[in-house]
Automatic annotation (TrEMBL), chains A, B:
Residue runs in coiled coils: none
Classification of source organism: Bacteria, Pseudomonadati, Pseudomonadota, Alphaproteobacteria, Sphingomonadales
PROSITE patterns associated with the record: DEHYDRATASE_SER_THR (PS00165)
Name of the featured protein: Threonine synthase
NCBIfam families named in the record: PRK08197.1
First-level EC class: lyase
Pfam (any one): PALP
Gene3D superfamilies according to UniProt: 3.40.50.1100
InterPro entries listed in its UniProt record: Ser/Thr_Dehydratase, Ser/Thr_deHydtase_PyrdxlP-BS, TrpB-like_PALP, TrpB-like_PALP_sf
Keywords: Lyase, Pyridoxal phosphate
GO biological process: isoleucine biosynthetic process; L-serine catabolic process; L-threonine catabolic process
Keyword Lyase: yes
Obligatory cofactor(s): pyridoxal 5'-phosphate
Amino acid sequence: MNDNLVAERPTFVTHLECSLTGERYEADRLHGLSRAGRPLLVRYDLAAAGAALSRDALTGRETDLWRWRELLPVRHTANVVSLGEVETPLIPIPRAGGGRVLVKDEGRLPTGSFKARGLVMAVAMARELGVTRIAMPTNGNAGAALAAYATRAGIETIVLCPDDTPEVNVREIAMQGARVWRVNGLIDDCGAIVGQGAAEGRWFDFSTLKEPYRIEGKKTMGLELAAQLGWRLPKAIFYPTGGGTGLIGMWKAFDELEKLGWIGAERPRMYAVQAAGCAPIVRAFEAGEEHAARWEDAATVAAGIRVPRAVGDFLILRAVRESGGKALVVGDPAILRAVDDCARQDGLLLCPEGGATLAAYRQALRDGEVDEDEEVVLFNCATGLKYPMPEAPNALDRHKPIDFDAL
Amino acid sequence: MNDNLVAERPTFVTHLECSLTGERYEADRLHGLSRAGRPLLVRYDLAAAGAALSRDALTGRETDLWRWRELLPVRHTANVVSLGEVETPLIPIPRAGGGRVLVKDEGRLPTGSFKARGLVMAVAMARELGVTRIAMPTNGNAGAALAAYATRAGIETIVLCPDDTPEVNVREIAMQGARVWRVNGLIDDCGAIVGQGAAEGRWFDFSTLKEPYRIEGKKTMGLELAAQLGWRLPKAIFYPTGGGTGLIGMWKAFDELEKLGWIGAERPRMYAVQAAGCAPIVRAFEAGEEHAARWEDAATVAAGIRVPRAVGDFLILRAVRESGGKALVVGDPAILRAVDDCARQDGLLLCPEGGATLAAYRQALRDGEVDEDEEVVLFNCATGLKYPMPEAPNALDRHKPIDFDAL
């Protein structure tokens, strides 16, 4: 059927390295953070990969996430796990106020969010490395993706989430075979419990960037974008930033694509978008700092980016600065207005985090930060269907005469 | 970007004909039902299409729904409307009890259901034919798809739905720019009001099969399936059957593919799946009748197939019989169990209508109606995320000592 899932294809992985110190770690071993307490990055022999694989060969494959096998860490085809990771469409929203605004609609992935990209890879690697029990803190969508893939791979899963996590997320996590617990705290409070259990050897810790492979899955957003646009990149990318794995992953992907000789040196300006009620990266960006202090009393309607402290903070800030982009903040009212406008005007229902990127884009347009004629990609990280929508109370009694003029 | 949306490509449409009498109607005109009160079918010059277009040429295109332009009715590229109609994945569910069971996951389409296929085509044709106001009865998902595409195309829309339509559907319809009304009745009661307004010239009637183009959109399920399986078809298809447009459309697609010389004469056995609380097609099938009488007091957890009377009843029954398949009935408890099992065992969350096809498959397996080693496709017609899920009440107090053994 889909060759990407069943054909034997080599990975060109060589090793891992600490994102802070560059210290080298062996591939094909179970790793958490580096000895310096920082995320590990997976490295490939891109010269060899480029010799073995051409852009044309890739174009001939099915377009799902697993077409990038050579640039992904999974070594044995038998460990590939899949629930149909389709290439997500780029949808123009002509009424967004600018010129060429494309929404990358990540809600089309399994479990309805971009979290599937990271978790499908992390679970496949967990299977490859013999992990049998995983725990993870989540604001919702990541837990849903983990539950689905771990169930698929026959791995036991414990998920902890803040007690105000959207109901649909908690339920889908449970439905898909994980054990899920609501915790009276935020995602980093959940993460502390997961870390404690991991230290006691009870499970493997799947927190954002605490295992090295979610970022490899997320980087496919960048690979896919290049392929979809005919091996060029947009002028700017607006990315809703919580843990920031996707932004870091795309930045890594662009670097790998250039080393493969498949794109040039030009990069999009990366805009990390956060909510006014939880904007640690924006604060650090504006203060010119390398790391971001924890944001106290975090609160926003965009639960997915309510991450008070990101372990990859310095990687996010570095990518944003290198790209010539910015960290931008938008308020909840602007987020909700953007969601409403996009649905009502362009027929596309965004999630609040996707709405945040549209709100940030509009603001950047007003501020002259982006030009009207620049091609821009906004990431809608999950299906809008998972989120509360306003009531629609109109009713009609068919047993009475119908006032057609009022319809 | 996606050539399918912007390249000039000819349609090979020649005319329309009445599905009952064969009477011929002109293409490129606005049509409702035929003079005999039956659905119109769109006909193509397949010899010319086959000469102009090869399977290989198709394989080189982007895989979305609009790659089939030559076999679709839209004449002018400018009328193509799109929200990213991706090719939906075929996902194996190895723990379903049989051999090679594939779920075609239609929840990945815009607005989260297969209704997008029919409505994107009907709205594009409405635009092509100058329609400015549309009304439609819906059980939910079709209204959501209509709202999104009509908004996109700048067409005014009125949607009527039963008052117990899932809340998420009613809200998304309103969000996406349609005017939506709850009616104290079933879908055919809503349809009667739409019909009355249409008769008064207030709007164009978009009811299932009352305009000729939804079926052309739905037939892409059959085209896609053939392309995905390497130009062969599965042994059996289980299809959740309300109005039956998709089943009729797929049957039409297979016929067109054979005339193009792209597949042989072999066909899948088509199983029309209905719920015990609303099974007019099953009743007619078993009685050997050509038409299906209205089902009174229709009720099922699978709202999408709660259609008491289908205007295309004879076309559904004809396709099922010609294929050597059957109309099958499953109860709500079996439907809910199938949804639960598939999520818990294979990590795939089906909608209730998709669950109905799995329940029917299991039953057919037990009854010897299908063999264990037969390749079978089940249609999951919408994302499971739109439907109620059981509560997951576990909570954990992080201010107290954690009992890790209990997690």
